[in-house]
Design goal:
Mean pLDDT: 91
Strand content: 5-15%
Number of helices: 4
Strand order of the largest sheet: 1-2
Radius of gyration: 19 Å
Helix content: 25-40%
Order of helices and strands: HHHEEHEE
Shape: globular
Low-confidence stretches: none
Distance between the termini: 38 Å
Structural class: alpha+beta
Largest sheet: 2 strands, antiparallel
Oligomer: single chain
């Protein structure tokens, strides 16, 4: 589901406020069949939801809004962008940056202990989680 470049581009556009099929299509230049399939997959996986809307004189259509789970992907998108900025700098200007709502203050993604203390990436390790004990009933 998140292994397709179009999905990440759709997420970026949704985070930038795009909501309609036409906005996604026009902004990305994506084929309509591919766009339909990707939006359906995002809805199916609970990342976006359909919201009916109607412009005056038009038929009812669906807009797409991020669900709470989709909103949480801001962290993932920001982390990928931050990593790319630091390790794969590009001469192309960025299309979007993460800021605190209503301010010019940029935000960064970082590891934080449950207590709120920042942790350097070099101090973080991944470890296997032991399987839960088998109950004998």
């Amino acid at each position: 589901m998140l292994n397709d470049p179009w999905t990440f581009l759709l997420l970026r556009e949704a985070l930038l406020g795009r909501r309609t099929f036409a906005e996604f299509r026009d902004r990305l230049g994506i084929a309509t069949d591919v766009l339909s399939a990707r939006l359906a997959s995002l809805v199916e996986h609970g990342i976006m939801e359909k919201i009916p809307y109607r412009q005056p004189g038009q038929r009812t259509r669906d807009a797409y809004a991020l669900t709470p789970a989709g909103e949480e992907l801001k962290l993932v998108v920001a982390a990928l962008q931050q990593w790319g900025d630091e390790h794969l700098p590009s001469a192309k200007p960025l299309k979007a940056l993460p800021f605190v709502n209503g301010s010019a203050s940029r935000v960064r993604v970082s590891f934080v202990e449950e207590s709120g203390t920042p942790v350097e990436p070099a101090q973080v390790e991944f470890a296997p989680v032991p399987p839960p004990p088998v109950s004998e009933e």
